[in-house]
What does this fold into?
Amino acid sequence: MYNSKPESTDLPSSRQLVRSTIIALIAAVVILVTVVLPAEYALDPTGIGRLLGLTEMGQIKEQLAEEAAADAANETMSPSPAAAGAPAAPALSAPVAADAGWRDEMRVELAPDQGAEIKLAMKAGQKATYAWQVDGGAVNFDMHGDGGSEAISYEKGRGAASDEGVLEAAFDGNHGWFWRNRGEAPVTVIIRARGEYSGMKRM
It folds into this structure.
């Protein structure tokens, strides 16, 4: 066997290299605009991200990031009740059997700027009837689901005192609600549910 140098005709020309580079750059831009921006930043200039369900995922990520930042700022500015010498009240009661035909009920106390999330473990296509109300004020909310690599936002609202309806799971996973108290006084959110789900829990 003899080692031989490649012929000049076997090597790509400068024009071919430039062409390949341009094609790679175009492909990278397309992926950035149609996949990365919708999924990570909820920016969807082409509309493809919404069709693929990526924009909703980005919206949820953005909202959770904002809520986390608000929580961190609130914790650094306001001492906890325990640090101030006051006994801390339990934030959430355990699930209890509810009356009026409801299967589960939970109560969560939210201080000003505090948020909480409660989810139902559901399979794709299962339905759960729900009703929640706020004692002492109103809240912002996001009803959404996540599971595996999928995420969806069903409904959002601001300054809501109650909501009710039927939640149908779009896929296997955890589906439920995130509430944020943007008022100046503590409130209590009461959530009741019944239907096709395996359990209710605080996330």
User: Anything to note?
Assistant: Confidence is low (pLDDT under 50) at residues 74-98. The longest helix spans residues 14-41.
